[in-house]
Amino acid sequence: MSDQINDSRRNFLSKAAIAGSITIAPGVFLHQTAQAKSDDQAVSSNTRWGMLIDTDKCSKGCTDCVDACNNEHSLTGFDRPTTDAQYIRKVSLVEKQTGHEISLPMMCQHCETAPCVDVCPTGASFKREDGLALVDKHICIGCRYCMMACPYKARSFVHEEIKNQTLSAPRGKGTVESCTMCVHRIDKDGIPACVEACTEENHNAMIFGDLNDPNSTISQELKKHGGKQIRADLRLNTGVRYQGL
Amino acid sequence: MKKIEYTKIKGQSLAYYGLLAGLGFMILMGLLATWYMEHNGHYVTGMSNQIVWGMPHVFAVFLIVAASGALNVASIASVFGKKIYDPLSRLSALLAIALLAGGLVVLLLDLGRPDRLIVAITTYNFKSIFAWNIILYTGFFAIVGGYLWMMMDHNMHQFKKKVGLAAFVWRLVLTTGTGSIFGFLVARSAYDAAIMAPMFVIMSFSFGLAIFILVLMAAYNWTGRELGDAVIARLRNLLGVFVASVLYITTVYHLTNLYITEHHGVEQFILRDGGIYTNLFWIGQVLVGGLIPLALIYAPGVKNCRKTLGLISTMIIIGGLCQMYVIIIGGQAYPMEIFPGYEVSSSFFDGIVNQYAPTLPEIILGLSGMAVSLLLVTFMIKVLSFLPTSLADSVTDPHAK
Amino acid sequence: MTKCFLRISLILTGLIMLFPTQGIAETPFPTIHEPEGHGVECVEDEDEMRRNHMNYILHQRDKTMHEGIRTETYSLSRCIDCHVQPNDKGEVVGHDDKEHFCNACHQYAAVQIDCFQCHADRPQKYIKRASKPQALKEQLQEVLAAKDMGDAQ
Ligand code: SF4
Ligand code: SF4
Ligand code: SF4
Fold first, then answer.
1. Which pLDDT tens digit goes with each residue over B303-342?
2. Are the Cβ atoms of B343 and A86 closer than 8 angstroms?
3. Is the C-beta atom of A107 inside 6 A of ligand 1?
4. SS3 label, residue B261
5. Which of A27, B115, B170, B317 gives a 20 to 30 Å CA spacing to A102?
6. To test ligand 3's pocket by mutation, which of A88, A155, A177 has the most ligand atoms within 8 angstroms of CB?
7. Residue A237 CA to ligand 1 centre (angstroms)
8. Could you tell me which chain C residue has the CA closest to the CA of B349?
9. Which of C95, C108, C136 lies closest to C30, judged by CA?
C-alpha cells in the first residue's frame, strides 16, 4: 500500500521537477522539446545521447542516483551483493600519487565501438541508432561473454527469478542487463532517472543530452570545459564523459 | 606392411555394461546439476557478476581444446605421412568428435537460457568471435565426420588424404578461434595478448594426445587386444615434445607480459601473490602438468612402463585443467584496471581480488561433459570398426615408414 | 506380410485416437475476463486476436526494442492494461495463476508463455514496487562504508 503511495509521489515529484527544470538547470531539458520524437517514429543517428558527470560536484556519501536507478528499474536486492544487479554504482577513487579523493557514479558508458556488441554471439547486445547500448533480452542466451568483454564492469547477469518487475523495466533470470540510459524515459522525451534525481536534489553533477546537437547544454559544456573518457586508451568513444578526473 | 584389420569390440561383458552405466550415471548427475542451477538461477553456483565464467567453462574449454589435439594422431598420419600412426587415425578422429561434443554440451548447459539453443544456432552476429566459433565447431563435426567416412569406406579411400588435410587446417583454425575468445578481451590484462591463440594450439596438442593415450591403452587393455611397444614408444616421445612446447610457450607468454608495464600487476598476481592461483600455476600447471611428466617421459628406468605412461597422461590432464583454471578464473579474479593510477573501491567489488569457490553442481556438470565424451567413444567402438584388431609391433611395422 | 499389415494398422489406429473426435464439444473453454469498461473493443477482431495475437506482439516487440517505436496499439502492456483486472474477490492474480487472462488459455493449450519471465504480468498500478528505496539506500551506504579506502588493494 505504502509502496503505491510512494509510487504516485514519485511521479508527482518527477513532473514537478520537469516543470521546474528551467530554473534548476537551464538548458538541460530545453533542447528536448525541439527534437521531440513521436511514438511511431524510429530513432535516428542524428541524435547521440550522452551524459556528462562533474566529479567535483559529486559527493562521496551520496547515492541519490543509485537509489533512483534501483527504484526506476525495480532492482530488487536479494541481499547477495556478489550476484545482485547494479546498473550504476558509486566509485571512490584515491589518486595514488597525491591522495586526491574523487567520487563518481559509474554505469554503462554507451561506447560507440562497444566491445559488448562486438563479442555477443547472437546480436542480443546491440547499439541503437541514437547511441544507446542495449541488450535485447528476447535473444540473449546468457553466455556472459559481453560481461567478460566490457572494460567497465557495467553489466550484471540476472542470477535468480524476478517477480514484480515494473512495466517499463522488463528483466528476468538468465539474461544479461545494464544501464539503458533509461531508454523508456528518453523515448517519451524524459531524462534518465539518475540525472533527474541528481538534479532534483540540487547536486547538479550530471548532465544528459544530445552529443550531436552542438547547441545542447552537454555539447556546449563539453566544448567549453572538456570531458574525459574513462580508459580513453581503448578508443571506445564513450557516450558518458567525466570532468575533474 | 600388412593390411590393417579393424573390428568392432564385442562389448558384451559385464564390465562393458558397467562402464556404460557408470558414465550414464555421471551424465544423469550432470543433468540434475544443470536442472538445479537453471531452476534456481546461477546464484547457487560460485559464479557471480565478477567471476562470470566458472568451473563449467574450465572443463568446457579444456575439452574443446583437447578435441582438436586428439585429431593430431590422424593428422600426422595423413598430412605428414607417418605410416605408423595410420592405424590409429580412426580412433583419433572419433575421440576428437567425442571430446568436442562433451565440451559443447557443458558450454550449452551453463548458458543462462539453454532453452534458447535455437536462437544461438539461428541468429548470428558475424562480428563475434564466439559466433565464429559456433560455425567452426559445426564445421569440425562435419569435416571430421567426413574424414572418418573416407577412412572407413574403401571406395572413398582416394579422398582420404585431401579431407585429412582439410581437417588438419580446420582444427588449427578452431583452436586459434578458441584461444581468440580470450585474446579479444582487451579490457582484461590477463588475456590481452596475441600469443593467446598459438598458446591454445600448443596446449591442444598436449592435452589431446594425453587423453588419446589413456583411451587407447584402456581400450586395448580391457578388450585384451595387443598393443605393441613400437606404437607406445612413438606416442610417448611425441607427448614429450608437446609437453615441453607447452612449458616453453607458457614461459614466453609470461616473459612477454613482464615486458609490458601495464601487465606487471596481473603477472605478479599469477606468479607470486595470487594465493590459490599462484599455487595452481606453479604446482598444478608447471610441476604436475609439465616438469614431472617431462622428467618421467625421458627417465630411462620406466621407458616401457605402461603404468607410468598412464600416470604421465593423467598428470598432464590434471595440469591442463589447472592451467585452464588459472587462465579463465585467475584472469577474472584479478581486479580490472578501470582507473589506472587510482586506488579504487565501490559496492561492485572494484579494485579488490574477486572471490570464487566452485560449487559441487558446477564440478559435476564439468565432469559429466567428460563422461559424455567417453560414453560416445565407448559406444561407437562397439557399433563400428574403429579399432585395429591388433596393434602388435609386427602389424604396425615401424620399419615401413 | 500379415505382421507388417497388423503393425501399420495398429499405428494408424493410434494416430486416429490422438484426435479428440468426440471430445471437442465437451472441451472446457477457459474463462477470460472482459476488458475493463464496457463497450471497449480490442485493437483487432476478437477472432483475429485469438489466432494471431502473438504475431502482433512479436512485431511490435522488435520495433520497440530496436527502433524505439513506442506506439501503444499492439504493445504487450496495452493487452495487460485492459485484460488483467481484479477478479470477483478483488484480487489481481499473477501469470502463474490459471485465472490470469493469458495463462487461462495458455495453460489449456499447453503453450508456454515466455513473456512474463521478464515483463510485468499486471497493470503497473497493481504491482507492488519491489525495491524499498530507503532500505536499499542504507544497505548501499553500509557497503560503501565497509569497502572504504582501508581494505582497497
Ligand atoms: S560500457 Fe560496457 S556494456 Fe556499456 S557499451 Fe561499453 S562495453 Fe558495452
Ligand atoms: S550474455 Fe546475452 S547479451 Fe551478453 S554476449 Fe551473451 S547473448 Fe549477448
Ligand atoms: S541512465 Fe537510467 S539506467 Fe542508466 S544508470 Fe541512470 S537511472 Fe540507471
1. 778 899 999 999 999 999 999 999 999 999 999 989 988 9
2. no
3. no
4. helix
5. A27
6. A88
7. 11
8. C147
9. C108
- Report the SS3 class of residue B391: strand
Q: Closest-CA residue in chain A for B106?
A: A143
Residues from chain C that touch B345, judged by Cβ atoms under 8 A, are 147-149, 151-152
Dihedral angle computed from the Cα positions of residues B17, B18, B19 and B20, in that order, rounded to the nearest 10 degrees: 50
**ipTM of the complex as predicted:** 0.88
pLDDT tens digits, A14-51: 444 444 333 344 434 434 444 567 888 889 899 999 99
- Range of the structural domain that residue A44 is part of: 2-243
**What is the average per-residue pLDDT within B235-251?**
94
CB neighbour burial string for A6-33, b if at least 16 within 10 angstroms, e if fewer: ebeebeeebeebbeebeeebebbbebbe
pLDDT digit string, tens, across residues A134-150: 999 999 999 999 999 99
- CATH code assigned at A7: 3.30.70.20
Determine the pLDDT at residue A17: 42
Distance between CA atoms of residues B97 and A67, nearest Å? 51
Residue A8 pLDDT grade (very low, low, confident, very high; cuts 50, 70, 90): very low
Mutate to test the interface with A, among B36, B39, B52, B115 (most CBs of A within 10 A): B52
Which residues from C are below 8 Å from A165, CB to CB? 118-120, 127, 130
Using CA atoms, how far apart are residues B242 and B294, in angstroms rounded to an integer?
A: 10
Chain B residue numbers touching A122 (CB-CB < 8 A): 119-120, 123-125, 131
Summarised one tens digit per residue, pLDDT across range C84-114 is 888 888 888 888 888 888 888 888 888 889 8
pLDDT of residue B187: 79
Cα(A111) to centroid of ligand 1, in Å?
6
Residue spans of beta strands (DSSP E) within chain C:
none
CA of B125 to the centre of ligand 2 (A): 11
| A21-30, A156-165, B279-288: range with lowest mean pLDDT | A21-30
Q: Domain count of chain A?
A: 1
Q: Which of B124, B334, B342 to mutate to test the interface with A (most CBs of A within 10 A)?
A: B342
Cα–Cα distance measured from residue A108 to residue C70, given in angstroms and rounded to the nearest whole number:
23
Confidence of residue A183 (pLDDT cuts 50, 70, 90): very high
3-state secondary structure of C76: helix
Write the residue in A92, A102, A173 that is nearest to B41 by C-beta: A173
Q: Exposed (0-12), middle (13-18) or buried (19+): which is B331, by Cβ within 10 Å?
A: buried
Neighbours of A5 (CB within 10 A): 9
Instruction: Give me the pLDDT at residue A53, please.
Output: 96
Closest of B122, B120, B102 to residue B111, by C-alpha: B120
A133 pocket-lining for ligand 1 (C-beta < 6 Å): yes
Helix (H, G, I), strand (E, B) or coil at A60: coil
* For B188, nearest residue in chain A (alpha carbons): A151
**Ligand 2 center to B266 CA (angstroms):** 26
Look at ligand 3, atom 8, and give the residue with the nearest C-alpha: A69
Cα–Cα distance, B300 to B314 (Å, whole number): 20
Q: Which domains does chain B have, with CATH numbers?
A: 6-396 (1.20.1630.10)
**Max Cα–Cα distance, chain C, nearest Å:** 87
pLDDT digits 0-9 by tens, C118-145:
999 888 888 766 544 455 555 555 555 5
